[in-house]
């Protein structure tokens, strides 16, 4: 039975249900499994592999039959029967398409399952929660779609009015479900984030509405992402032969899931960490030192991150599961803006990970080149991955690059590079005709709190 411990080593071990609903550990750390289960040898369709790979992580909380049906349900929302199909872009270089979920980004793979797990665990505990979040674009719609129509969850997502793309706004405002609420705040993304932080800091409000989050530090999100590494290896008939994966990276959640798959026994040759101009991770891999710099906006906005929250999990692993040492390294980093690994820790990092970066011009070049050579349209995050994979790939190395979003999610950059505007897939083709439902609110904590309290179901 899996238990979970904190990356800072000063919180009690807990079970799966508590990590699912709990977010950060009380000591400020992130939860990881205390021991790593071995991968099952199960073969079959995506849902069967997913159920078998994740079963040991949830065994203390959820019965296997219930879990299997939640997994089936979650991946039935994907428009491709393979769920995450593989496509060869050039000999030996494959794309793993993770964007066939309801909101066209890879976050659906984890969040569609998370919504169902939340409902199940809340039912068992006879509790309700209200999820509040801020979004600059993509995560909001994925979270809203994941909990739509769930009985025990209400969700309110704040976004900066007039500052998201029209596709992004419509994906949030046209969801026709009674428990889902989009709020356009008269302010910036930072204002929205500050409002969310202030709501979490308001103890009375927090307990009155049962405030909760589905952010990228939730262990269950990482867990759900382990599956597609195993799936890809099976599709390529490489469950026993090492494969290299290239992962476009922001918060490091996705590539950390690859590390977990390797910990569980999947033969992975190398994990290529692909960054845009915001390349703190690539610099850490190259130099052994992480130094924060200002965030620069790029064509791949979901990777415009300097402090990757999931990096803490990897540091904990590199430091031999030493929580206090991890806490100390992070405290140094927060205080001075810089922290270094010891030589043996750095050696271990580069044994498992290689880093590369692409700037916007190089990203557009990749999008154009892939279109010219294959006729395929790829969006900027995926293009960063493809470009880094091409640059770092060794002769005869089989590489799988993770395709993290559908081209129609970032149509402007795709059109800029290729002259072709990617069409929305059929399940979203009428997005521009759907009725929008959105509440405009001022950047005012009391007013936003009143709104949240008034829309949640009791
Ligand atoms: C969130 C996101 C990423 C970054 O994923 P992490 O797990 O944060 O590293 C990359 N591409 C797209 C399209 C995303 O939405």
Keywords:
458 residues, 18 helices, Rossmann fold, binds pyridoxal-5'-phosphate, 45% helix, alpha/beta, globular, 5-stranded parallel beta sheet, 6-stranded mixed beta sheet, 15 strands
Q: How does this structure look, described?
A:
There is one protein chain. The chain is an alpha/beta fold and about 450 residues long. The protein has a domain of about 210 residues: 3-Layer(aba) Sandwich (Rossmann fold). It has 18 helices and 15 strands. Strands 3-4-14-9-10-13 form a 6-stranded mixed sheet, sandwiched between helices. It has a 5-stranded parallel sheet with strand order 8-5-6-7-15, with helices on both faces. The protein binds pyridoxal-5'-phosphate (PLP). Pyridoxal-5'-phosphate binds next to helix 10.
What is the CATH topology assignment of the domain at 86-101 and 221-418?
A: Rossmann fold
Question: CATH top level of the domain at 86-101 and 221-418?
Answer: Alpha Beta
Estimate the mean pLDDT confidence. 94
Molecules bound to protein: pyridoxal-5'-phosphate
Give the amount of beta strand, in percent.
15-25%
How many β-strand runs? 15
Overall CATH architecture of the domain at 86-101 and 221-418:
3-Layer(aba) Sandwich
Supply the number of helical segments. 18
| Molecular shape | globular
Distance between the termini: 34 Å
Low-pLDDT stretches? none
Strand order of the largest sheet: 3-4-14-9-10-13
């Amino acid at each position: 039975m899996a238990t979970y411990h904190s990356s800072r080593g000063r919180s009690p071990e807990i079970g799966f249900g508590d990590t699912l609903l709990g977010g950060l550990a009380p000591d400020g750390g992130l939860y990881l499994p205390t021991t790593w289960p071995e991968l099952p040898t199960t073969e079959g369709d995506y849902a069967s592999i997913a159920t078998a790979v994740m079963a040991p992580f949830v065994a203390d909380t959820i019965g296997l039959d219930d879990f299997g049906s939640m997994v089936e349900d979650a991946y039935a929302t994907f428009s491709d029967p393979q769920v995450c199909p593989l496509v060869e872009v050039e000999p030996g270089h494959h794309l793993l398409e993770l964007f066939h979920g309801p909101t066209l980004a890879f976050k659906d793979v984890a969040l569609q399952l998370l919504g169902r797990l939340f409902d199940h665990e809340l039912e068992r505990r006879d509790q309700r929660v209200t999820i509040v979040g801020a979004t600059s674009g993509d995560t909001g719609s994925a979270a809203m779609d994941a909990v739509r129509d769930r009985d025990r969850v209400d969700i309110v997502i704040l976004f900066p009015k007039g500052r998201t793309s029209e596709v992004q706004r419509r994906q949030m405002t046209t969801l026709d479900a009674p428990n889902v609420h989009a709020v356009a705040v008269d302010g910036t993304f930072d204002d929205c984030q500050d409002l969310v932080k202030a709501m979490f800091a308001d103890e009375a409000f927090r307990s009155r509405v049962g405030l909760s989050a589905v952010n990228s530090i939730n262990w269950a999100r990482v867990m759900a992402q382990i599956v597609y590494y195993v799936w890809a290896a099976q599709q390529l008939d490489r469950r026993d032969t090492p494969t290299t994966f290239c992962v476009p990276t922001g918060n490091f959640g996705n590539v950390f899931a690859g590390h977990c798959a390797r910990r569980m026994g999947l033969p992975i040759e190398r994990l290529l960490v692909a960054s845009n101009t915001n390349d703190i991770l690539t610099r850490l891999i190259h130099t052994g030192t992480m130094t924060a710099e200002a965030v620069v906006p790029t064509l791949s906005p979901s990777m415009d991150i300097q402090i990757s929250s999931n990096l803490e999990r990897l540091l904990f692993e590199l430091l031999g599961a030493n929580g206090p040492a991890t806490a100390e390294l992070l405290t140094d980093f927060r205080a001075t803006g810089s922290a270094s690994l010891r030589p043996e820790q750095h050696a271990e990092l580069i044994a498992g990970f290689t880093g590369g970066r692409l700037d916007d011009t190089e990203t557009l070049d990749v999008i154009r080149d892939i279109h010219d050579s294959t006729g395929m349209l790829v969006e900027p995050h995926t293009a960063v991955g493809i470009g880094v994979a091409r640059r770092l790939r060794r002769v005869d190395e089989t590489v799988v690059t993770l395709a993290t979003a559908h081209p129609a999610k970032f149509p402007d950059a795709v059109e800029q590079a290729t002259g072709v505007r990617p069409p929305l897939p059929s399940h979203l083709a009428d997005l521009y005709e759907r009725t929008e439902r959105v509440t405009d609110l001022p950047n005012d904590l009391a007013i936003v709190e009143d709104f949240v309290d008034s829309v949640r179901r009791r």
